[in-house]
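Re: [ENG-882] Designed sequences occasionally contain unexpected residues at chain ends

Forwarding the minimal case from QA. Structure tokens:
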């Protein structure tokens, strides 16, 4: 008996292992742009022909050129007939740059593998439809959960008009951030503090409340990694009771300082070079929901909030905390120490914000945990 091929004219099925491998590379390229490309998403792209990578790129600092055009420029003529791996649906509209879908069509690529779709109403499936209409094979959903996580900040700006918010806490084993006298240096060790600087670099902005500015006079920059694109420093103050002689004021012209405030005269801060963002008050405090909408409209997609306790409580009560990163140092302070989070006014445990543990590891003498809002 002779066995024959029942499908003599079929095309070769995609190699799922290779798809995952090349998409993982594209994701790693895109992550290099986190904190550097807002208001655009941090996209990565890899172009493969005959099993060989001929082009790679990520969204450039500032948001353009886009990842696809960067990779196509590197690939040149080798892009013809190639397979393109991209972490987000290629754009299909004319903005400050031409559509990436058109660039892929013009390069005569054969296949485009996309991790996840773009919820931007100007794209939202139109990019993939344009590729298919041009005869390009499109495969979707390769490493989609990973891509959705990487693009969560951009997605939230499109669907809920707010950035992704990570709340960072550094506490003792009993959940305190300072002694009763305010002494807090250092609860965690040098390895944890270095990791925090790396986390700041992967966010568009670092945020603190006015109380933290008054108490600590923080710089809120990224140190220890050489020359980097510094994040925006956002201060939340209901009444602009802020020192104008501290580190943030002295460096506002060199590294962006944005002040989200309710009442008060912001003239002095604008003279110092800060950007002021007036926000309505609610119960005497900055309305954090309205504030996040303002920040999203200004282009921020990922915010790293480092406290203090009252700001953390306001964000939690408003349901605006997406991730919590908790560093716990090997100390205990006791009940007279300062709590990491202000009062939430809860009377029922069922109403408490709930999170799911996503990661846990030891950092020097500390323990780091990453929690995702349930």
């Amino acid at each position: 008996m002779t066995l024959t091929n029942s499908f003599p004219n079929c095309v070769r099925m995609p190699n799922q292992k290779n798809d995952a491998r090349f998409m993982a590379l594209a994701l790693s390229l895109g992550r290099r742009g986190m904190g550097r490309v807002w208001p655009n998403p941090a996209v990565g792209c890899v172009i493969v022909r005959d099993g060989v990578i001929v082009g790679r790129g990520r969204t450039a600092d500032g948001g353009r050129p886009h990842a696809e055009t960067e990779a196509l420029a590197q690939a040149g003529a080798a892009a013809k007939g190639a397979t393109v791996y991209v972490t987000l649906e290629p754009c299909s509209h004319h903005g400050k740059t031409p559509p990436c879908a058109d660039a892929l069509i013009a390069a005569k690529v054969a296949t485009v593998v996309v991790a996840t779709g773009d919820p931007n109403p100007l794209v939202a499936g139109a990019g993939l439809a344009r590729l298919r209409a041009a005869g390009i094979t499109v495969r979707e959903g390769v490493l989609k959960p990973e891509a959705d996580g990487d693009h969560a900040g951009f997605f939230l700006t499109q669907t809920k008009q707010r950035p992704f918010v990570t709340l960072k806490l550094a506490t003792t084993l009993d959940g305190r951030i300072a002694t009763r006298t305010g002494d807090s240096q250092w609860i965690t060790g040098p390895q944890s503090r270095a990791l925090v600087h790396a986390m700041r670099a992967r966010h568009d902005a670092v945020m603190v409340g006015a109380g933290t500015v008054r108490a600590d006079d923080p710089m809120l920059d990224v140190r220890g990694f050489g020359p980097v694109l510094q994040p925006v420093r956002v201060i939340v103050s209901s009444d602009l009771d802020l020192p104008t002689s501290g580190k943030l004021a002295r460096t506002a012209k060199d590294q962006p300082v944005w002040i989200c405030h309710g009442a008060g005269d912001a003239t002095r801060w604008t003279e110092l070079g800060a950007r002021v963002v007036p926000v309505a008050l609610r119960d005497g405090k900055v309305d954090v929901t309205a504030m996040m909408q303002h920040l999203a409209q200004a282009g921020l997609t990922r915010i790293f909030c480092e406290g203090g306790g009252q700001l953390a409580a306001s964000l939690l009560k408003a349901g605006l905390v997406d991730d919590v990163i908790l560093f716990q140092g090997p100390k205990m302070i006791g009940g007279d120490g300062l709590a990491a989070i202000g009062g939430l006014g809860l009377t029922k445990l069922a109403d408490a914000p709930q999170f799911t543990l996503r990661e846990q590891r030891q950092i020097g003498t500390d323990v780091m945990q990453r929690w995702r809002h349930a």
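QA comment: On inspection the terminal residues look reasonable. The two ends are 59 Å apart (CA to CA). Proposing we downgrade this to a documentation issue.
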